[in-house]
Design brief:
Largest sheet of chain A: 8 strands, antiparallel
Shape of chain A: flat
Strand content of chain A: 15-25%
Radius of gyration of chain A: 31 Å
Strand order of the largest sheet of chain A: 5-4-7-8-1-2-3-6
Helix content of chain A: 40-55%
Order of helices and strands of chain B: HHHHHHHHHH
Distance between the termini of chain B: 27 Å
Number of helices of chain A: 5
Largest interface: A-B, 74 and 74 residues
Order of helices and strands of chain A: HHHHHEEEEEEEE
Oligomer: heterodimer
Helix content of chain B: over 70%
Strand content of chain B: under 5%
Number of strands of chain B: 0
Structural class of chain B: mainly alpha
Number of strands of chain A: 8
């Protein structure tokens, strides 16, 4: 690769925007010290990016500025504490001994409950994190104005089943999200169909993974009015026509 | 803000290293808007964006010694602090909890099979919206949501090499758009 090819490979932009891996970054830094052209290209893109950001500046409220200056001024200040006053009486010893026993018991229960609570909290956090990742995938697709969506509802064979198709009308890419569908028996497999003028078109077999709400990428669809999923026998000779049971279906 | 004096980037860096508040005020008044724009491209909630911006500037103040001029301009360093802080925020538990309240509404949208509203595009996001669908998804996932190339390859089920080359070519297009 010549230096010019290296510069125009997109590495400059990747590095400046912080999208390179560690190795790529190190290599790029070496190239910058060895080749002034690389350094010049980096600086040019940095300046363009800075100009772009300046032109799209949004003024934050004055409140933010005040808080920042408060925070940087408060670091390093020492807070003094009042010493506690100690008291001693004879009966106090017994009361203290009794309360220590009570306290020990109470601490024991607290720890037990707190551990239980932690477990629950962890489970909860994991679920929330998983959901958030999924939501992000969906948001990416929904934010794209060229992407259409078909929500496919359960049919007679499985009324609670639900799946969603996202179809990019410009690139014709088809993404499938299995929201809720039963795990197929080991000799069966789901298959996605697009409907064009009432005729089913094979969109591909679906390898269901254990991961809930997984996003699958399937065959491209040039045009479609509806999508459906059937449960089919594995390894059947002609997969271009549906032969099994209809599970979900939905219009675009 | 009217600032009479202007500093070169080197002067500014050396003032910051001396923990000079006047230098820091100059930095804030000149760059907070640009960085706030970056934060807003990633964190959509205004209150949270304010907190993130506050963190960004406190971090610039505290970590200025780790800035290495040989690796890039001061602004690039600050921009990456702003981007990373924003992505950390949208990935943190607190943000997820605050987003949780909106989930009911979103579910209604899903059930009604409508397409979600598009967020007002600002700054780099606006440039991004000019990219073709697929490239746009890739840049959005990598730059604005901080997914690694490996994670993207897995999520979209496309080979890692393809993710890399497509992101590179999207970035080349982005460059020509902002120049």
């Amino acid at each position: 690769m010549s230096i010019q090819e290296y510069i125009s490979s997109g590495i400059v932009e990747s590095y400046v925007l912080g999208l390179t891996s560690e190795d790529e970054g190190r290599e790029f830094e070496q190239m910058c010290t060895k080749h002034p052209e690389v350094l010049a290209a980096r600086t040019a893109f940095e300046l363009a990016l800075e100009k772009q950001a300046m032109e799209n500046a949004i003024a934050p409220s004055l409140d933010v500025r005040n808080k920042i200056f408060e925070e940087i001024n408060s670091t390093g200040k020492v807070v003094t504490m009042q010493p506690a006053i100690a008291r001693k009486t004879n009966w106090f010893k017994y009361a203290a001994a009794a309360s220590v026993i009570l306290l020990a018991g109470s601490i024991y229960w607290n720890i037990m409950l707190s551990n239980k609570n932690k477990d629950l909290q962890n489970n909860y956090n994991n679920s929330v994190a998983e959901l958030s990742d999924i939501k992000k995938d969906i948001q990416v697709l929904q934010a794209n104005p060229t992407v259409k969506m078909a929500a496919m509802g359960g049919q007679a064979a499985s009324p609670t089943s639900f799946a969603t198709v996202y179809w990019d009308t410009t690139s014709h890419d088809v993404y499938l999200m299995v929201n809720n569908m039963p795990k197929p028996a080991s000799d069966k497999q789901y298959q996605l169909w697009a409907f064009l003028d009432g005729q089913p078109v094979d969109m591909g077999l679906i390898e269901i993974t254990e991961k809930p709400l997984q996003l699958y990428r399937l065959k491209k669809a040039q045009a479609a009015q509806a999508f459906a999923i059937t449960l089919e026998q594995k390894n059947r000779p002609d997969i271009s026509k549906p032969a099994g049971t209809l599970y979900v279906m939905g219009k675009l | 803000m009217n600032t009479q004096i202007t500093y070169s980037e080197q002067e500014l860096v050396s003032l910051l290293r001396q923990r000079n508040e006047q230098g820091f005020a100059y930095l804030y008044d000149n760059y907070s808007g640009a960085l706030y724009g970056i934060v807003n491209g990633i964190v959509t909630d205004k209150e949270i964006a304010n907190d993130v911006l506050q963190n960004v500037f406190v971090n610039i103040w505290r970590k200025i010694d780790s800035y290495d001029a040989s690796k890039g301009r001061l602004f690039t360093w600050m921009l990456n602090i702003a981007r990373n802080a924003s992505i950390d925020e949208i990935r943190s538990k607190g943000f997820r909890d605050s987003q949780k309240n909106q989930s009911l509404e979103e579910n209604v949208d899903l059930a009604g099979s409508s397409i979600g509203p598009t967020v007002d595009d600002v700054g780099l996001k606006k440039v991004l919206s000019k990219l073709k669908g697929e490239l746009r998804v890739l840049i959005d996932m990598s730059y604005f949501q901080g997914f690694t190339h490996e994670e993207i390859a897995k999520a979209l089920d496309i080979p890692l090499g393809t993710v890399k080359t497509r992101i590179r070519s999207a970035l080349i297009q982005l460059r020509t758009m902002i120049q």
